[in-house]
Amino acid sequence: MKVLIATEKPFAKVAVDGIRKEIEAAGYELALLEKYTEKAQLLDAVKDADAIIIRSDIVDAEVLDAAKALKIVVRAGAGYDNVDLAAATAHNVCVMNTPGQNANAVAELALGLMVYAVRHFYNGTSGTELMGKKLGIHAYGNVGRNVARIAKGFGMEVYAFDAYCPAAVIEGDGVKALGSAEELYRVCQFVSIHIPATAETKNSINHALLNEMPKNAVLVNTARKEVVNEAELIRLMEERADFIYVSDIMPAAHAEFAEKFPGRYFATPKKMGAQTAEANINAGIAAARQIVGFLRDGNEKFKVN
Ligand code: 3PG
Fold this sequence. Notes:
With 305 residues, the protein is α/β, with parallel strands linked by helices. The chain contains twelve helices and twelve strands. It has a seven-stranded parallel sheet, sandwiched between helices. Helix 1 (13-25) runs parallel beside helix 12 and helix 5 crosses helix 6 (142-153). The longest helix has 21 residues, at 277-297. The protein is elongated. The two termini are 22 Å apart. The model has no long low-confidence stretch (mean pLDDT 98). Bound molecules: 3-phosphoglyceric acid. Residues 9, 55-56, 77-79, 102, 271, 273-275 line the site of 3-phosphoglyceric acid. The site of 3-phosphoglyceric acid has 11 residues, from loops.
């Protein structure tokens, strides 16, 4: 059996070593395609792979067509909007993610972006503190929970809205559960987005919702760029000189944001929420174990299609 790691944005070496150990201990072979720049390289590498470990790498019908021996794809991470699930099912390929494995890394970055924003991007001028401020967590999944835990350490007042997570679970963590996204944005000066990109959520963070936010609003996006309606956010930031947007996912309209909102906008050049040795090890080794468990024992835990 051949397991391919196909990562345009590579894991830390220590994580690749750990994955190799798991795969070779099962008697399988490990192949590596890192930092590829052309889809053709991926199409070529998947030809004889029985299993693939990916990150935000696109696995569409064309990739699945090329991967004639493929049985399983594991997205080492949380969001699997980069995989065509219907095409995978049609090709009889199992798709899994590794929920929670990189959640702390993303949560730490979310708080880091908040500090960066309120300290004026470290430009030397006097900023503000997070202590005592209201933080709204939009979706209380693995990342949201970690953001809540860390934000409490900062002394923030933490609120959350999650359409699927019971209020009792949220309240059990000492976080105030609110009944709607509108209420969350209305109450909180800081909002951290942790919703997945789905047909339902794409473009859902719009002008009407964002305009609910109080004065000196800071919107933090470590989720997906697609969930924010960029044209409406630009319009809002033109109308409201107090509004700050910090993102770990460069918007499609990055140049326009950067030009129009100096001092109120920042985006990382490459998504780096999960770019820590720890997250790479956790997610990478979980992916390797899930592949071995599936190929050897038929274990389908974490299957998403
Ligand atoms: C995820 O969904 O797990 C995060 O967005 C991390 O993505 P990455 O593996 O491409 O860094």
